[in-house]
């Protein structure tokens, strides 16, 4: 994907967001039924942009926030990026017609009418290369996760009907598919195997693995975005548009903003939610950071769209002994994220521990790298006891993690 291990970890570890308590929170077979959403979060708000022109449609991944910016003219918009760790702002596009960006790792996508019709484009920060993704001339509102890009597309519309559906393009297979069938879908977002969108002012979710569609809201809501088990959206139930957050696994909703101005277009990454806000007379980008007054209790909610363990999951063959600890850890992480199926919280917890181990190893802190791998082994073994993963899967993960530990300790 072009994203270095250190860049991946800037949000998760450097910002201090990883803890053993958080990993335990992700374990799905514990005794308590209370979750973090039952505890009121402390919300800290930060203004990101101060330019007197309008900034719209923010998106966030790790320490990077991107948005549409009109500083070069009201109808001459471009995409800008701000890095929270370096506090540096960068202009990404120069077409003057770039709108509605999204970001994942080193890849930024947006809609652009530079050729007279709207299509989806992508820019890779690592290669500094721009690529046109669609050619339909009717593609809007893209989002990206991994190799998958989703957008709303009005192909098939005419003067008598306005047909809009959600499409997805896989960068790895170069294959395009249609996701929705309502002909009135829009404002889509993707995280993992889940795609959310708005249809008839309600939020819906589709699972790419199970091919199951679920209605999320029963009140009018727009601009849905998803990260993990959390969906954020704008809702005007109180007279002005505020940001709300819904937890899929607990079915709990909280109100994030209560400013008397209108908060639009929320996006979420980990514990950060950003949106566009006109409270100062022009649109600026704001960010809310959610923290909890007390340590999140353990959670026993082990329901997930994956419908339990896939007993036919294939364990890969043993890797070459010539692989470095980083190579082995990355391969194990890809196995966790892409191959085996389990509760999404467990998957995230295992992958986060491997990310932390790689970050420590790159910083020459072998002791902490090994400690994270041992925590990974403990979690995998716990999942076997809870029957959340098969014995074969657990044995493979534990065996690979121990090989990595041996490699680190002998270097």
Automatic annotation (TrEMBL):
Residues 294-303 have a biased composition (Acidic residues). Residues 294-321 are annotated as: Disordered. It comes from the Archaea. Residues 304-314 have a biased composition (Polar residues). NCBIfam families: beta_prop_Msarc. PANTHER family: PROTEIN TOLB, PROTEIN TOLB HOMOLOG. This is Cell surface protein. It comes from Methanosarcina flavescens.
């Amino acid at each position: 994907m072009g994203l270095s291990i250190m860049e991946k970890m800037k949000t998760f570890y450097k910002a201090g967001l990883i803890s053993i308590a958080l990993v335990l929170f992700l374990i799905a077979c514990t005794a308590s039924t209370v979750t973090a959403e039952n505890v009121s979060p402390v919300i800290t708000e930060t203004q990101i942009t101060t330019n007197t022109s309008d900034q719209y449609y923010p998106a966030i991944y790790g320490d990077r926030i991107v948005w549409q910016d009109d500083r070069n003219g009201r109808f001459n918009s471009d995409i800008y990026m701000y890095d929270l760790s370096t506090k540096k702002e960068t202009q990404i596009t120069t077409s003057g017609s770039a709108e509605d960006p999204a970001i994942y790792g080193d890849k930024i996508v947006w809609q652009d009418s530079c050729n007279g019709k709207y299509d989806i484009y992508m820019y890779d920060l690592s290669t500094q290369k721009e690529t046109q993704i669609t050619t339909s001339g009717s593609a809007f509102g893209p989002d990206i996760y991994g190799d998958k890009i989703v957008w709303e597309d009005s192909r098939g519309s005419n003067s008598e009907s306005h047909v809009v559906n959600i499409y997805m393009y896989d960068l790895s297979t170069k294959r395009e598919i249609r996701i929705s069938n309502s002909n009135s879908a829009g404002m889509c977002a993707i995280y993992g195997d889940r795609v959310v969108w708005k249809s008839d002012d309600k939020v819906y979710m589709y699972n790419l693995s199970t091919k199951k569609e679920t209605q999320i809201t029963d009140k009018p809501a727009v601009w849905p975005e998803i990260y993990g088990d959390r969906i954020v959206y704008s809702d005007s139930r109180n007279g002005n548009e505020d940001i709300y957050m819904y937890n899929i696994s607990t079915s709990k909703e909280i109100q994030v903003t209560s400013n008397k101005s209108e908060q639009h277009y929320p996006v979420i990454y980990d514990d950060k939610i950003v949106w566009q806000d006109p409270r100062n007379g022009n649109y600026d980008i704001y960010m809310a950071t959610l923290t909890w007054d007390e340590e999140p209790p353990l959670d026993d909610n082990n329901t997930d769209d994956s419908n339990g363990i896939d007993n036919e999951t294939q364990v890969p063959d043993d890797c070459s002994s010539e692989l470095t600890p980083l190579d082995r850890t990355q391969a194990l992480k890809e196995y966790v994220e892409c191959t085996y199926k389990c509760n999404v919280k467990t998957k995230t917890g295992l992958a986060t521990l491997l990310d932390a181990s790689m970050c420590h190893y790159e910083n020459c802190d072998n002791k902490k790298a090994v400690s994270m791998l041992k925590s990974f082994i403990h979690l995998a073994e716990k999942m076997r006891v809870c029957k959340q993963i098969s014995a074969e899967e657990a044995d493979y993960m534990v065996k690979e993690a121990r090989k990595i530990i041996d490699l680190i300790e002998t270097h």
